[in-house]
Amino acid sequence: MCALPIYYAPIIAFELARSAADLETIFGTQEPCRSEVVERLDAINLVDVLVYIPAYGVFMAFFFLGMRGRHASLGRLGFRVAILAALGDFAENACLMNLTPQLDPTSTWFTLLPWATGIKWLGLGVAAAIAAAIYVKSSSARLWNYLAALLCAAAFLSTVAAIAAPAMFGPFVGLGVGLSWLAYVITAGAAAFRPIAGAAELRGAG
C-alpha cells in the first residue's frame, strides 16, 4: 500500500507475496505506514474469516449443487472444489494473520503461504472451469451459456496466471474471479424466478 500501484489491491498483493521485497513494497519500511497497513489488512482478514469466506463458500457450494440438474457429475465435482477453495482461503488467512506481527519472510507461515494461496486461487479457477464446462454442455439458452462459459474461462486463466506470475497478473485476479461469480449470480437469480414445471397443475389440484 505504501509503494503498490494504485490498481493493485493490497490484500491480494499480500496473499501473493513471495519475498522480503514484496513485503516491503506492501508494508513499507518506515512508520507510521507499516503499522497502519498491518492494522488495515488485519481488519480485512478478520472480516474475511468471519463473513466473506463463509458467504462465498456457501454460495458456491449451493450453486454447484443446483448445477447438478444440468450435469450431475460436474456439479458434484464443482461442489467439492468450491469447498476446497474455501478451506484454502481459511488456511491462507491463518498464514496472513500470523505473519503480520513480525512480517518475517523466513517464518514457517511465509513458507506455507504460497501453498494455501495456490489452493484458494487455483481452486476458485478450477471451479470456474468446471462451471464453464457445465454451461457449454447445457442445452437451453445457448447464447447466455456461451457468454457465461467465457466469463468463467477468464476466471480460470486469471488464477493460473496470477499464481505463475504474481507481480504481473496478481492485480487482475480478483477481477477475473469476479467475472465467474457474476455468471453464478445471474444464473442463480434466473433460476430463482423461473416457473417450476408442473406448478400450475399443483395449484389446480389444491
List the helices and strands and how they pair.
Blueprint: H1 10-15, H2 20-27, H3 33-66, H4 72-99, H5 108-137, H6 142-164, H7 166-192, H8 199-205
Helix pairs in contact: 3-4, 4-5, 5-6, 5-7, 6-7
* Beta-strand residue fraction: under 5%
Q: How many strand elements?
A: 0
Rounded radius of gyration (Å)? 20 Å
Task: Give helix and strand order, one letter per element, not per position.
Answer: HHHHHHHH
Say what oligomer this is: single chain
Helix content class: over 70%
Low-pLDDT residue intervals, each spanning 5 or more residues: none
Distance between the termini: 62 Å
- Approximate shape: elongated
- The count of helical stretches stands at 8
Specify the structural class: mainly alpha
Average pLDDT works out at 91
Largest sheet: none
What descriptive keywords fit this protein?
206 residues; mainly alpha; elongated
What this model shows, in words?
The chain is mostly helical and 206 residues long. It contains 8 helices and no strands. It has helices spanning 10-15, 20-27, 33-66, 72-99, 108-137, 142-164, 166-192, 199-205. Helix 4 packs antiparallel against helix 5 and helix 6 packs antiparallel against helix 7 (166-192). The longest helix is centred in the first third of the chain and has 34 residues, at 33-66. It is elongated. The N and C termini lie far apart (62 Å). The model has no long low-confidence stretch (mean pLDDT 91).
